[in-house]
Each structure stands twice: as structure tokens, then as C-alpha cells.
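ESCALATION

Customer reports they have been waiting on this structure for their group meeting. Please prioritize. Original submission:
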Amino acid sequence: MFQSLSPFPSLRACSAILITLAFAAHASAVEDDLRIVAQVQSGTAGFEPGVALEWRSSTFDRFVIRPELNLSEDQRIGGGAALLYSLRKNLDLPAGQDLNVGPRVVAHNSDDTGLEVDLMATYSFALGDAMKSWRHAVGLLGTVGMRDDRKHDETRLGASGGAFYSYRF
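Update from on-call: job pushed to the front of the queue and completed.
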């Protein structure tokens, strides 16, 4: 599905880099929070390393928009997005920690797994002085939901867990 977007892989890579730079420039101009994330996940859809962007508007700072790209177990690119809500203030978490929860849709694009609709949670820990910038953070992520099992032609429960590193522009 995603492989047919362009016959030129280098054009896709350049487009992704330009879009990331545009998001970073916009975030800097309006004081939004934009992070680039390197992540690894493992679960019912297999082992999937990937990258994501986390964008938090300065106006609606409790919401995080999180598009992601993953490399499926079949070495094909899949992708999806999540809309997360920060529970940091609700739970009175310590400075430098954040818990985000929300819906996520992802197309794994592998031989065994297609579309997945789930609930995603991320728990972040700032590295360094959390009160100043949250420039670097590490965290844990988890998902649970329903996934398209292509191998058995049915919908099954899917779950995954993983870890990530994020850098704030």
C-alpha cells in the first residue's frame, strides 16, 4: 500500500525530511512543542522499529498529534497516527514525567497484519533538567486493540510494547 506512493524512494525520503523540517520551523515560530522520536515495538504484529513526530500545540497543550512510520517484519514501510491526551496534570505527575493516552490507527503493511485500531499509551521521562526544556526524553509505550490478521482472514486482539527516545526541536 505505502510502497506505491512514489516510484522514487529517494524522493519519498527527501519529502519526509522536508516535511519534518517544515514542522520544526513552524513549531519554533509559534512556540509549539515538536519532537522527533526513534522507537522500537514488539507484539502481535511482530518486531517493528520506527520513527514518529510528536506535535503539541502551544494553544492546546494537553493534546499530542503523533504520526509514525514503522518497518514491518516483512521489511515494508507501514504507518499510522495517534491523537493522545496528556494526563500529567490530572495525575499530578512529578516534574519531567508525562503520561499520554489516546486512539491510534496504523497500517502495518506486512504479510500477516494489516490495519490496526487501538488505544495507545506513552509514558515519558525527561533527561537532564526537566524544568528547563525537556530537550531529551526516553519512554515506554504500549498499545492494545483490534488488528486485521491477514494470515487467518479475521480480526484479532493485538497488543504491543516498546521503548522510545525523543528529541525536542
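Sent to customer with the following note: The chain is about 15% helix and 55% strand.
Escalation resolved.
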